[in-house]
Design brief:
Blueprint: E1 2-7, E2 16-21, E3 30-40, H1 42-49, E4 58-59, E5 63-71, E6 83-87, E7 99-103, E8 108-109, H2 116-134, E9 144-147, H3 153-164, E10 168-173, H4 176-184, E11 189-192, H5 198-205, E12 211-216, H6 223-229, E13 230-238, H7 252-256, E14 261-263, H8 274-289, E15 297-302, H9 306-314, E16 321-325
Parallel strand pairs: 9-10, 9-12, 10-11, 12-13, 13-14, 15-16
Antiparallel strand pairs: 1-2, 1-4, 3-5, 3-7, 3-16, 5-6, 6-8
């Protein structure tokens, strides 16, 4: 019998329940998957709390990897037996499951050298890193960037990729342990934001100039420090809200900070075009398969332990990537 984590109301981690589910046969355009590993992402907590509203009851999770067991009519880009991965938004909700039906459109066939556990740990984070590195700003060797949450799943990928591009990387973390992890993955300078003034330290490290780009997945708590860390005409990329949404501001603030730019991109808009999605996926999976970027799976949970996993995630007790094993 298949099982899934489902919620019948929004709220704290305890609203999630481990339930038996009927899967059935795929309809036209669908595939039936047997999951081998499931990704744990901070965005999952937004669905659980109701920040991202969905009709209830609902499944949980938007990223997983496994094997295609059956396909419905009209599905041609994957076949039974293929190892696949996927990520998305509402269209992939329900990944916290041992088996499921899903629209076949988001499915990505895995390269031979990428294990399902690795894929579940990196598909969302990897595609996010890919568009941040390749689509947002024309990065050039010698530039300096600031990465918040540098020891997190996306942060570790960004730091490694930045070094491949010849960039200088400043990262922020919340502990000595996380500082060591960030340094091991490409951070040239690490700032402990619990003990240091981030913007002041960035200015010291850059000779007063500031950084070209700030990659900020934290949001509310880091927004002003991010703006204050930018060089003239630099860019703040707000791509996450781990501490809450960034505050509203008057456009004149950007002029006062040095004619800086702010963007709030979403992964969905960078993988909506199948061709662009394939390009980004090919690059990140290629870098990982070649060993040029390492994916660190630092936490593994049984799927039925989703409540504890969410507690750990929200308490900032995790580093790198976290997955559920089936």
């Amino acid at each position: 019998m298949a099982h899934a984590i489902r919620m019948h109301e929004t709220g704290a981690p305890e609203v999630m329940r481990w339930e038996e589910v009927e899967v059935g046969a795929p309809r036209p355009g669908e595939a039936r998957l047997r999951h081998e590993a499931v990704g744990l992402n901070f965005a999952d907590t937004y669905f659980r709390t109701g920040l991202y509203p969905v009709p209830l009851p609902a499944g949980m999770g938007v990223e997983a990897a496994g094997v295609v067991e059956e396909v419905g009519a009209g599905v041609t880009h994957v076949t039974p037996g293929d190892r696949v991965t996927y990520t998305g938004f509402v269209n992939t909700l329900g990944a916290y499951s041992t088996e499921r039906l899903i629209s076949a459109a988001p499915l990505i066939r895995l390269p031979e050298r990428i294990a399902c556990e690795t894929a579940a740990a990196m598909t969302m984070r990897g595609l996010t890193s890919a568009y941040l590195m390749r689509r947002i700003w024309p990065l050039h060797a010698g530039e300096t960037i600031l990465v918040h949450a540098a020891a997190g799943g996306v942060g570790l990928i960004l730091c490694q990729w930045a070094k491949l591009l010849g960039l200088t990387v400043i990262g922020t973390v919340s502990s000595e342990e996380k500082a060591a992890i960030a340094s091991q993955h490409g951070c040239d300078h690490v700032i402990d934001y619990t003990r240091e003034d981030v913007a002041r330290r960035v200015r010291e490290l850059t000779g007063g100039a500031g950084v070209s780009v700030v990659y900020d997945s934290v949001g509310k708590n880091t927004f002003m420090a991010s703006l204050d860390s930018l060089k003239r005409r630099g860019l703040l990329v707000c791509f996450g809200t781990a501490s809450g949404a960034a505050p509203a501001f008057e456009p004149q603030l950007l002029a006062r900070k040095g004619s800086v730019f702010v963007t709030r991109p979403a992964l969905a808009d960078y993988i909506a075009d199948p061709r662009e999605k394939a390009e980004l996926a090919d690059e990140i999976f290629g870098l990982v398969a070649a060993g040029r970027i390492r994916i660190e799976i630092n936490q593994r949970y049984a799927l039925e332990d989703a409540v504890q996993a969410h507690r750990d995630l929200e308490a900032r007790r995790t580093t790198g990537s976290s997955i559920f094993t089936i």
